[in-house]
Design a protein that fits this description.
- The protein folds into 2 domains: 5-152, Rossmann fold (3-Layer(aba) Sandwich); 169-530, L-fucose/L-arabinose isomerase, C-terminal (L-fucose Isomerase, Chain A, domain 3).
- The chain has a 6-stranded antiparallel beta barrel, surrounded by 4 helices. Strands 2-1-3-4-5 form a 5-stranded parallel sheet.
- It has helices at residues 15-38, 61-69, 91-96, 113-127, 142-152, 174-190, 211-214, 226-234, 238-250, 267-286, 308-314, 345-361, 460-468, 486-492, 506-522, and strands at 5-8, 43-45, 77-81, 101-106, 132-136, 164-166, 192-197, 219-224, 254-255, 291-294, 367-380, 383-391, 409-410, 432-442, 445-455, 476-481, 497-503, 526-530.
- The radius of gyration is 22 Å and the shape is globular.
- With 536 residues, it is of the alpha/beta class.
- Helix content is 35%, strand content 20%.
Length: 536
């Protein structure tokens, strides 16, 4: 291995985000470089900081290609992430890099690096690129130091994956087998349409399911344009949008508004968001979509307020009624229209199957994805547990919250990501039993991991503290995984997102997991069950 280690930093496409987050990235990079130097190795950045832009990130695919042309193809390469990043900015270079690759994240909820690293790792897994991965709070702990030392010696960094077991090791309940097999057969026979607004524009390569892998499951894509969504919004009148807002007000949802549209949530922004909700339902109905995904953060962000209010409402069974143009027919009446945030098609397939399995079982079918945002130990019922912070920008359904709509608040989204404002659907997830899962692509194979967890209720001051060190405008879930440690989860999980759905109780959630696993298996996915679930 060449002596000099090359360090690179991938970032956002949005200048405002890169500038705001640069200080945290610079601190993480310095700590990682010092750790490498302590091991007696030279390290240098593979690209300079740009004083005119005010940051040192790779901020486009074009620039990423320029950077990789000047990196020796056999150099040991470290990708340090303290922020959200767009994987396509550097995936091209990682495809052909011949030297060892190490991804490193700071363990912080601030921007956050662990979310960016999980996305990049999942993208490389899909692409078949070999890599090692580490994470740390301060880059001096034994876990990080030992892993770094091993990698610098030319060895891969291996993590404990003993929590992962193939579905073939389990004897699933007969009821679960019947439901899963029946729903999988029905889906393959009757088909389903996944509506996708602007596939891939956030650079999440891992979130795109190749058609040849998706079609055998019975699901087919309807590729839609966000410009069509915006055009449909223009056809919605103010009075109709106001009726959606009035419905939410009557059901107790709070909107924290102010006068300055640059920093506050305004009534005008909310009205536009209600129009998006109506427009999304009408387009979905026009195309016969069983689920949809909006990828607001690029393109649409320069035309309209955030999509997150619409996303959270769509994921809820009880929501403001919307009628078809002209004939008064209520669209998707009495049903959620599953929405997958950021057009994460893996989460979309997961949401569709969850909705159908939970409905068949007679359980409330609300589901959503969350970012795997952060986590810390905290005492729960007299025992210290690692409590994850799951957050998403607002697509969580109010049925997941303590108090439902009455526990939901909409606050203005952060200006560095959401220039034209708008709010999400914020709340604290209710305590209970959940199934977590992730569909992912691994070098040409469609796979699914499933596990069980508990949502716990933390003291109000601890919830507020966790919001302050992450994103206080977003809904939060406090999750304790059953039989999966922090490091095991990080080592295995192939996404920045995790899908969650509640069971009425522990036994019901166990049954739902088994039925969902059986459905995925019979749809052709390679299924694993993670953690403490069923004796083998």
């Amino acid at each position: 291995m060449p002596e000099t280690v090359i360090l690179i930093a991938n970032g956002d496409l949005r200048l405002s985000a890169n500038q705001r987050c640069w200080a945290a990235q610079a601190r993480a990079e310095e700590a990682v470089m010092n750790a490498i130097r302590r091991e007696g190795r030279d390290v240098r950045r593979g690209h300079p900081c740009d004083p005119h832009k005010g940051h040192g990130f790779i901020d486009s695919q074009k620039y990423g290609m320029e950077v990789f042309r000047n990196i020796p193809s056999d150099a040991p390469l470290v990708v340090v992430e303290a922020v959200w990043q767009y994987s396509h900015h550097l995936l091209h270079g990682l495809y052909t890099h011949a030297g060892p690759i190490l991804t490193v994240a700071n363990w912080s909820g601030e921007w956050p690096g662990l979310v960016g690293m999980l996305n990049l790792n999942a993208s490389m897994t899909k692409a078949g690129v070999k890599y090692s991965s580490l994470w740390s709070e301060d880059f001096t702990d034994e876990f990080f130091t030992a892993g770094l030392r091993r990698w610098l010696a030319g060895q891969p960094v291996n993590h404990d994956l003993s929590h992962v077991r193939g579905i073939g090791e389990f004897r699933l309940p007969a009821q679960a087998e019947e439901i899963g097999s029946r729903l999988a057969a029905l889906l393959r026979r009757s088909k389903a349409i996944m509506g996708i607004f602007d596939e891939g524009c956030m650079g999440m390569y891992n979130a795109i399911i190749p058609d040849e892998l998706l079609h055998p499951t019975g699901v087919f894509k309807e590729r839609l344009s966000q410009s069509a969504l915006f055009a449909e919004m223009r056809q919605v009148g103010d009075a109709e949008a106001a009726r959606v807002r009035a419905w939410l007000d009557r059901h107790g949802m709070q909107f924290r508004t102010g006068p300055n549209p640059d920093t506050d949530l305004t009534d005008a922004q909310i009205l536009e968001q209600c129009k998006m909700y109506i427009a999304a339902l009408r387009i979905a109905d026009d195309f016969g979509c069983d689920l949809i995904g909006i990828q607001y953060q690029q393109g649409l962000k320069d035309l309209a307020p955030a999509s997150d209010l619409a996303e959270g409402l769509l994921n809820n069974v009880e929501r403001p009624p919307v009628t078809a143009r002209g004939n008064g027919r209520v669209l998707y009446e009495g049903r959620a229209l599953p929405h997958f945030n950021e057009v994460d098609e893996c989460a979309g397939l997961d949401a569709l199957v969850t909705n159908r399995v939970w409905t068949a079982l007679g359980y409330p079918p609300e589901t959503t994805l969350h970012d795997v945002r952060y986590g810390e130990p905290f005492p729960v019922a007299g025992r210290e547990e690692f409590v994850w912070v799951y957050e998403i920008s607002g697509a969580a359904p109010p049925a997941h919250f303590i108090g439902g709509y009455a526990g939901a608040v909409s606050e203005r989204q952060p200006p560095m990501y959401f220039r034209l404002g708008g709010g999400g659907v914020k709340g604290v997830s209710k305590p209970g039993e959940i199934v977590w899962s992730r569909v992912f692509v691994d070098a040409g194979v469609l796979r699914a991991d499933l596990g069980r967890a508990k949502v716990v209720e933390l003291p109000a001051e601890e919830t507020e503290r966790r919001w302050r060190i992450t994103t206080p405008q977003w809904p939060i879930m406090h999750a304790v995984l059953d039989g999966v440690t922090r490091d095991q989860f990080m080592a295995r999980h192939k996404s920045n997102h995790v899908q969650v759905a509640y069971g009425p109780d522990a036994a019901a959630a166990d049954l739902a997991l088994a039925a969902k696993a059986a459905a995925f298996r019979d749809m052709g996915l390679d299924v694993s069950i993670c953690g403490n679930y069923l004796a083998g």
